[in-house]
């Protein structure tokens, strides 16, 4: 059982490191969006995808260890949380499990907040881009009429953003 608990704590510590890296990447994503740096944004997206893949693999490992621990304890793995597990093991392991749980929860919460800020920032950027696109799209009449003289009749006057008076 001690071997499984040590393995679980190791997996949780590695997950904490990966979540810290993901937090740094998400913060860099914000800098890339604010700085309009497309190259940096592409690099950040690749790094984020890589970290998420590693976290997914690590989560599978954690689930396997938790299933083995649940079998050792004779309980269901579905309801076995770190807090419940800490109540059923020695004090030294209980403290380490609770510390891992606290660290992970704080990291995930911070990550959610930064991700929400990035989402809002990107949404606002998209609204600005759509507004600019709409403005540029409506500067010209869709089908101007060309006369034999070379003059162009655009129908109603369009494309003037400011008054022509000086």
How would you describe this structure to a colleague?
The chain is mostly helical. It has a single domain, classed as Methane Monooxygenase Hydroxylase, Chain G, domain 1 (Up-down Bundle), CATH 1.20.58.300. It is built from four helices and two strands, in the order H-H-H-H-E-E. It has helices at residues 2-34, 38-73, 82-87, 91-137; strands at residues 145-146, 152-153. It is rod-shaped, with a radius of gyration of 28 Å.
CATH superfamily: FlgN-like
Q: What low-confidence regions span 5 or more consecutive residues with pLDDT below 50? A: none
The coarse silhouette is rod-shaped
Would you report the number of β strands?
2
The CATH topology is given as: Methane Monooxygenase Hydroxylase, Chain G, domain 1
Mean pLDDT: 84
Brief characterization of the structure:
This protein has about 170 residues and is an all-alpha fold.
Secondary structure blueprint with pairings:
Layout: H1 2-34, H2 38-73, H3 82-87, H4 91-137, E1 145-146, E2 152-153
Antiparallel strand pairs: 1-2
Kindly list the characteristics that best describe this protein:
166 residues, mainly alpha, Methane Monooxygenase Hydroxylase, Chain G, domain 1
């Amino acid at each position: 059982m001690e071997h499984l608990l040590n393995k679980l704590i190791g997996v949780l510590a590695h997950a904490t490191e990966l979540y810290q890296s993901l937090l740094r990447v998400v913060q860099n994503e914000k800098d890339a969006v604010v700085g309009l740096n497309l190259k940096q944004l592409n690099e950040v997206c690749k790094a984020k995808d890589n970290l998420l893949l590693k976290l997914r693999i690590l989560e599978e490992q954690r689930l396997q260890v938790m299933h083995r621990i649940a079998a050792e304890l004779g309980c269901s793995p579905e309801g076995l949380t770190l807090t419940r597990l800490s109540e059923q093991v020695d004090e030294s392991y209980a403290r380490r499990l609770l510390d891992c749980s606290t660290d992970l929860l704080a990291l995930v919460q911070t990550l959610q907040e930064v991700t929400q800020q990035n989402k809002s920032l990107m949404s606002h950027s998209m609204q600005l881009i759509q507004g600019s696109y709409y403005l540029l799209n409506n500067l010209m009449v869709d089908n101007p009429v060309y006369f034999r003289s070379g003059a162009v009749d655009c129908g109603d006057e369009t494309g003037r953003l400011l008054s022509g008076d000086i």
